[in-house]
Amino acid sequence: MRHALVRPRTFVRGLLGVGLALLAPVALAAGFQVSPTIAEVAPGVRVASFELRNPGEETLTIQVDALDWTQSAEGGDALAPARDVVIVPRLATLPPRGSQLVRIAVQGEVARERAYRLRLREVPPPPPPGFMGVRTLVEQLVPVFFQTAATADAVEWRVLPGAAGELLLAARNAGGRHLRLSGLRLVDPRGAVLAERGGPGYVLAGQSTQWPLDTHARPARGDAVRLEFLSHGEARSIPLQVE
Are 103 and 87 a contacting pair, CB within 8 Å? Predict the structure, then answer.
């Protein structure tokens, strides 16, 4: 399962700026690969390593940063520059079909699980002589967790009505470990799917968050429902009541 978030970034070269993008006959697509795409670092281990690979035929330069990762009860992730980690190197050069090892080391005592996103951004190279077109660059955000001896999450769930008629799923993790989940859906007592959410999701240790669900049918307040999802390869099923 791939967990690195990939964000394409487009740069336009030429005298007409953005307007040229609509007419450009040439588009250069570059990219790189990272392994692993998620790092869950064991207690007592202070360094995580990643291999960056360049499958293409031209040299790539990758800028590497670490971002503190937090969540809010209103939903959404917050990312800010991390000041308690060391990254080597911060600028990686990948030769054609070559690779480079990148390490992130945490500083200070890890008294609670720390969550980061390793941000890998392709640096735009000089354009080829005479090139007029679009080049798409890649940015990846890789989840990194430095864990403690705490081995379990402890998530409290709530099903709430949304302002636009959708259902909201609120989560509060009182445990010492993040929860990673996928295939999330809400079903009624007969097993009919009421709402669902695609893609992977996280509830960070000691954090709260919420998600709007793709709602097919909205149950009444007080109705019994069941939350189902996969976490670390394990199926979970949790009885809830709509608030």
Answer: yes
The verdict on 216 and 169 lying in the same domain is yes
User: Would you say the pTM of this structure is higher than 0.90?
Assistant: no
Range of the domain at 211: 155-241
- Give yes or no: residues 100 and 210 share one domain: no
Q: Which residues are 161's β-sheet partners?
A: 167
The SS3 assignment for 19 reads: helix
First to last CA, the chain: 33
- Region 230-243 average pLDDT: 95
Instruction: Give residue for tokens 């968050």.
Output: 209
- The H or E element spanning position 69 is strand 60-71
Which of 103, 123, 146 represents a domain boundary (last residue)?
Answer: 146
Distance CA 31, CA 55 (A): 8
Closest CA to 105 of 120, 87, 118, 131: 87
Residues 46-85 have pLDDT tens digits of: 999 999 999 999 899 999 999 999 999 999 899 999 999 9
Rounded Cα–Cα distance for residues 3 and 5 (Å): 6
Q: Name the residue with tokens 């992977």.
A: 200
